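Checklist before submission:
- one chain only
- standard amino acids only
- sequence pasted in full

Submission:
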Amino acid sequence: MSARPPKAKPIPAYPGLTVLSDEVVWEGRFPLQRVRFRRRRFDGAEGGVLTWELWRRGGAVAVLPWDPWAGRVALIEQFRLPALAAGMDPVMAECAAGLLEDGEDPVDAARRELAEETGLVADRILPIGRFILSQGGCDEVITLFLARTRLPEPGHAGHHGLHSEHEDIRLLVLDADDAIAMLDDNRIANATGALCLAQFARRRAALLKEWTA
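Returned file contents:
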């Protein structure tokens, strides 16, 4: 019998939770577990048996580059097959992002993804939130970062991505106000980009003086 994939760890103990079975039904890069369980309800009664499929992706990071001197931010554009399958425009404006490698510090991962997907280097980086992206079916938890860097004039500013992974990424520089307007009218249609911009919009005024000193 083969060992469990490292990402497919057994379900942790939790008060009132009884795990009846926990099997790995797919052992690809992102394992899939089928878990049968029951839990004590909020009213104290014993709940019924539930069967959930759990997709194990692990930790991730996303980073929004900000030039506070010029009032610009940078997003990326790339093709997303799941968006197409969902009936959405598959070329999405989003933030540079990626999964954590084993044992990797999220700050290091954010700097790595920033370099790989945008070609940018940050001289300052700040965590701005930590969220689970699809709590109904996947364990992926993402840490968001704001990165201070110098940005060119607004517009498309080059192509990036790892050739070894066939990445095709286009850098998009925007006035910060224009990016927030895209968030407000739902032209940012992915959760990571929306969360990064929302957190940035809340913090921008407070950070501006400190980050331009």
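Reviewer check: The first strand starts at residue 17 and ends at 26.
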